[in-house]
Design brief:
It is a single chain. By secondary structure, this protein is mainly alpha-helical. The chain has helices at about 15-20, 20-30, 35-40, 45-60, 65-80, 85-95, 100-115, 120-125, 140-145, 155-165, 195-210, 215-230, 245-270, 275-290, 295-305, 310-315, 325-335; strands at about 235, 240-245. The protein has a two-stranded antiparallel ribbon with strand order 1-2. It starts with 16 loop residues before the first helix and ends with a helix.
Length: about 350
């Protein structure tokens, strides 16, 4: 059997929403979301929780600075495409967006969220490089999902295939039209704005019927997809060669997580207009840019939280966010074993 083909089995039989009933189905598979997310990629669930918290603050305009918005976009793109080849390509595209373009896109998103205009919101994110590839809104939908999980959901080929009964009769009736004849064939099909809005309408209806968020519906469907096409720490490329995750890519994800945490300290302290503090955070940001590995970041933090380096002590005295405040979180990420 070729690597990219789905085994001809019915592992999902007995567990579909048609057989379990919708309420029990969503209860069961939402409960399995954490396990299935981390099966898809180690640390995916933790990243999901962090992005929800950050997205909420951005949606409320509590955080609007250029650096954090860019880091948020990078993290969402990596969350959606976590495997090395795809992640590096996504990062390369996302960082070509300049700050003016990012701020303009988010201004339009905030306006659209205030007005309740789903089309304007998804198209505003889709206008950014990396988020509207070929007119598709799959990556852009992830940004909206984290900005407001109570209204938005990620559109994924797996979820579309399940809702359209592609490859099996999962629901009593298909909710969407199939994009391909097979479950796997749905993977590379683009989902444009009109299609995303159609998908969103279906997911929101299910959310209302089951007293859940649209984001919960999409997570449960994704978790269930493991019964149809197993999630794993490998992915299939177009020529069906398997790309195994390397140690380097795992370390890259760790470094990205740790970089974002340290940048929170930088951004928080930039709001204080004191020359010595600005000089200190400039030094911190410069040091961070020189860090090539998670170990480099951890060592820098240790050096800057000792008595020999008074910067962090002065920052704490001002009541601002300091490296000591985030050191425990950094140590936890740094010590996470590869699963």
């Amino acid at each position: 059997m070729r690597s990219g083909r789905i085994p001809n089995n019915l592992a999902w039989s007995g567990n579909s929403p048609r057989e379990l009933g919708h309420q029990e189905f969503f209860r069961r598979y939402l409960g399995l979301a954490r396990e299935r997310f981390d099966k898809y990629y180690p640390g995916q669930w933790s990243l999901t929780q962090r992005l929800e918290a950050l997205g909420r603050s951005i949606a409320l305009r509590e955080i609007t600075d250029d650096v954090t918005l860019l880091l948020f976009l990078v993290d969402v793109a990596v969350w959606k495409e976590p495997y090395e080849l795809q992640a590096k390509d996504m990062i390369a595209q996302v960082i070509t967006n300049n700050y003016d373009g990012i701020k303009s896109a988010f201004s339009r998103v905030w306006s659209a969220l205030d007005k309740g205009s789903d089309m304007e919101a998804i198209d505003a994110i889709g206008s950014l490089r990396g988020f509207g590839i070929g007119g598709s809104r799959k990556i852009a939908s992830a940004v909206l999902r984290f900005l407001d999980p109570n209204k938005y959901a990620v559109v994924d080929y797996r979820n579309w295939a399940i809702l359209s009964n592609t490859g099996g009769r999962y629901f009593e009736l298909k909710m969407l039209e199939p994009l391909a004849e097979t479950f796997e064939g749905t993977r590379d099909k683009p989902v444009d704005t009109a299609m995303y809005l159609q998908y969103l309408k279906v997911v929101r209806t299910m959310a209302d019927q089951n007293l859940l968020r649209p984001a919960d519906i999409d997570m449960a469907l994704f978790a269930f997809s493991d019964e149809i096409k197993p999630l794993s720490a490998t992915m299939f490329v177009k020529d069906n060669e398997v790309l195994s995750q390397s140690k380097d890519s795992y370390e890259d994800v760790k470094r990205q997580k740790m970089t974002e945490i340290v940048m929170r300290v930088v951004i928080d302290n930039r709001r204080v207009r004191q020359s010595w503090l600005q000089h200190s955070v400039d030094k911190l940001e410069l040091g961070l840019k020189k860090c090539k590995t998670p170990g480099d970041i951890m060592q820098m933090v240790y050096n800057m939280t000792t008595k020999a380096s008074p910067m962090d002590i002065k920052i704490r005295a001002l009541g601002r966010l300091s490296l000591l405040d985030v050191k425990e979180e950094l140590e936890r990420i740094y010590s996470e074993p590869r699963k």
